[in-house]
Amino acid sequence: MLDFGLKATWFAFVVVGAVIRGVYVRRHGKPTISDDLNTGLDKLLLLLSGVGMQLIPIVYLLTGWLDFVDYGLPRAASLALGVVGALVFAVGVWLLWRSHAELGRNFSPTLQIVEDHALVTDGVFRRIRHPMYSAHLLWAIAQMLLLQNWIAGPAFLVLQVPLYLRRIPAEERMMLEQFGDEYREYMGRTGRLFPRFRR
Q1: Which residues have CB under 8 Å from 144's CB, separation 6+?
Q2: Mapping DSSP to helix (H, G, I), strand (E, B) and coil, where does residue 71 land?
Q3: Residue 3: how many other CB atoms lie within 10 Å
Q4: Would residue 50 count as lying in a domain?
Q5: For residue 171, what is the domain's CATH number?
Q6: pLDDT digits (tens, 9 = 90+) for 89-110
Q7: Beta pairing partners, 36
Q8: 25: pLDDT confidence band, cut at 50, 70 and 90?
Q9: Which of these, 4, 15, 51, lies nearest to 146 by C-alpha position?
């Protein structure tokens, strides 16, 4: 029963995350793109991240194929990890929501500058330059704690790291080209993935 509860918690947060993304994508429609830096490698890395975020976990939930590598923890430890995982996921989903809400029409799921792009530095962007990536990092950590399996648990974290190692520096170069000193100053007072509270 505990195992089912942990999996159901993971699934519920995934649904909430998908609804958040869907609402904001639908609300702002398809933006007019003024600069697109996506490459085939970017698309491949994004696809692999999605495999770790959804495909492998869903295979784990719907089949018994990966059960042979479950963590096998005592019930109390499993429950404790699950509670922490739910809390981490709740913070991640909140951060995902705030990131979308504050970006508004400036949001693009890929390396693109939209027409009339504005630099957003308020709300969760006040202390973190990439809060949406931070939200997905929290999601990946929560997945490890809720899906207590050595393949499905860390799949998202393992498969998103190459994407972020490539994408974050490329995105920052793109923003520097677009906003120049304004973005450089913003970089100086914010953390990349974690909040910076002092200058």
Answers
A1: 85, 153, 154, 157
A2: coil
A3: 15
A4: yes
A5: 1.20.120.1630
A6: 999 999 999 999 998 877 777 6
A7: 112
A8: confident
A9: 4
